[in-house]
Fold this sequence. Notes:
The chain is mainly alpha-helical. The chain has two domains: 1-95, RNA polymerase sigma factor, region 2, helix turn helix motif (Rna Polymerase Sigma Factor, Chain: A, Orthogonal Bundle), CATH 1.10.1740.10; 107-185, Arc Repressor Mutant, subunit A, CATH 1.10.10.10. The protein is 71% helix and 0% strand. The chain is built from eight helices and no strands. It has helices spanning 6-13, 17-39, 45-62, 73-92, 113-131, 134-144, 150-157, 161-184. The longest helix has 24 residues, at 161-184. The termini are far apart.
Amino acid sequence: xxxxxxxxxxxxxxxxxxxxxxxxxxxxxxxxxxxxxxxxxxxxxxxxxxxxxxxxxxxxxxxxxxxxxxxxxxxxxxxxxxxxxxxxxxxxxxxxxxxxxxxxxxxxxxxxxxxxxxxxxxxxxxxxxxxxxxxxxxxxxxxxxxxxxxxxxxxxxxxxxxxxxxxxxxxxxxxxxxxxxxxxx
Length: 185
């Protein structure tokens, strides 16, 4: 993900609307991606969009006080806000696995066996990730999809580094078990 340049960031911090629109454009996809992955099967696209908008509203309000202390800080800060909002929403929702829908069906024209196998595998992985608890899913997605370090995940989720490692280990073990069952079942 490409970071926003310092000049545009400074302009956005001073309230320049065009600069803030540039910030939204730069981070819209990763914000939607993390929220969508965390909410898979539990929220419709409109709800994911609402959480993304709330993320950018909170970014807008807090941006003047934000201090970029190195590369990647802005993106990690924005993804932290998105992750916390998604976790809050997951805690608010009652788990309803029976109502889970496959939200990431990808329309395609290629119907070869290989393409069908890849889609089935992608679907199985998405379903396995969806089976993780909200806490395990958050840690797993931040580590594996967004390359957060353990300390960054701990700070983002307001938990100890040991808890991060434990949740990540359990998530990986559960995913491995789910995928093994799929392969042999």
